[in-house]
Design brief:
single chain, mainly alpha, two-stranded antiparallel sheet, 16 helices, about 0% strand
């Protein structure tokens, strides 16, 4: 019998405060990509983003289990926030002069996470065993990133890739027995991080315009960039976020934890990565409005949005929906347009992306009008908390 009651709780101020560091970290990743818009730079930027995302996701699970606002937990969270800040500061040289510093800070973030989870597991043998299963990948992976700091070139990148593979695959070992998920809180936290990532695309618009004369083409390109960001927001929050949260609330036990892992920890990463790539593309667009984009910024502008939409398709499949037509079609169109974006002025490229996104929103609003209305009428899922939950101090 399921020994749970449903109560409604919201994301806490400390969680939002913690996320401010992640905002800065995403900004740093966009800057890293912008400073080195090459294939090797793209690979390094995505590796850094994957590491930062996994550390943020770890704390999203943690604060979903225990109250971060009380006693020693609050102090430990602030300590983790400091370590995350150091890692974010080191991002521009994460494969250069600050590689070891980044690795040590990242390791500290992960170790503090394990310490806090050990507090959450007091009096809960199942959760304690789950945390013990997490210890090897959560320490070996970050330790390899520290070791990678003493290398360079292909060896360094290869060790980073191995470290992240250990970290990401490690949670699959032993299944999801013992993990606790409060669905509404978990869904809200990930919805907020999508907004954070979209905010980075708005920041990229501002940075791209900074220092330029505000002529008509620049202002129009900036507005088009914001229009695309608005379409990305709409495509997630109009119904995807609602349905995903509902499916998470309907699941129970290990099935709920598996769904949370797959739909949120795994599948929200390509969404965030897609937004960061789009931010790179729009930033470079505003810097060179009348010129064709270089390969990586053009890829970011088209394939970044496509990656975001394909992550939605994967999420829909994971929660039991069909493949759909609109988002797969829009993603394929954008991917197919990438060669064109290398030839036309950047202004035209961002305009085409905006048209494709607007067409997708219009199609779904008309094609699924009744289903959308029904989805939005239903009440949101409330947060689930075990009776006699884990200790918070």
């Amino acid at each position: 019998m399921d020994d749970h009651v449903e109560i409604e709780e919201r994301v806490t101020p400390l969680e939002l405060f913690f996320d401010l560091v992640f905002v800065f970290a995403i900004t740093q990743v966009t800057g890293l990509l912008s400073d080195d818009p090459t294939w090797s730079g793209l690979l390094r930027g995505l590796l850094v983003l994957a590491a930062l995302w996994w550390s943020w996701a770890a704390y999203a699970w943690l604060t979903n289990t225990l109250d971060p606002e009380e006693g020693a937990v609050r102090l430990a969270m602030l300590g983790a926030m400091g370590a995350m800040l150091v890692a974010a500061l080191a991002v521009p040289q994460a494969f250069g002069d600050d590689a070891v510093l980044f690795g040590i800070a990242y390791l500290a973030v992960r170790v503090l996470h394990l310490v806090l989870y050990s507090i959450a597991g007091r009096g809960d043998p199942d959760l304690s065993r789950a945390v013990l299963r997490l210890v090897p990948p959560a320490t070996v992976g970050p330790a390899l990133i520290v070791a990678a700091g003493f290398l360079d070139g292909a060896a360094q990148v290869g060790l980073w890739a191995a470290a992240l593979a250990i970290d990401y695959v490690g949670v699959l070992v032993g299944g999801m027995r013992g993990w606790r998920v409060s669905p509404a809180h978990f869904a809200e936290r990930h919805g907020l991080v999508v907004i954070i990532a979209l905010g980075e695309s708005i920041v990229a618009v501002g940075i791209g315009v900074s220092g330029l004369a505000l002529e008509l083409d620049v202002v129009t390109a900036a507005l088009l960039g914001v229009a695309v960001a608005a379409a990305l927001w709409w495509s997630y929050f109009d119904w995807v976020a609602i349905v995903a949260a509902r499916r998470l609330g309907e699941a129970r036990g290990a099935a709920r934890a598996r769904l949370a892992r797959d739909a949120y920890s795994y599948l929200h990463l390509p969404m965030v990565a897609g937004i960061v790539l789009f931010a790179l593309g729009v930033k470079k667009t505003l810097e060179h409005v009348g010129e064709p984009l270089e390969t990586i910024p053009a890829l970011g502008l088209s394939c970044g949005v496509a990656l975001y939409l394909l992550a939605h398709v994967a999420l829909r499949l994971r929660i039991g929906g069909g493949l759909g037509r609109g988002r797969p079609t829009a993603a394929l169109v954008l991917i197919g347009l990438t060669p064109l974006f290398l030839e036309v002025p950047a202004f035209a490229a961002v305009a085409i992306v905006a048209v494709v996104c607007a067409a997708l929103i219009a199609y779904e609003a008309l094609r699924y009008r009744e289903q959308r209305a029904e989805i939005r009428r239903e009440a949101p899922t409330t947060r689930s908390q075990p009776r006699g939950g884990a200790a918070s101090t």
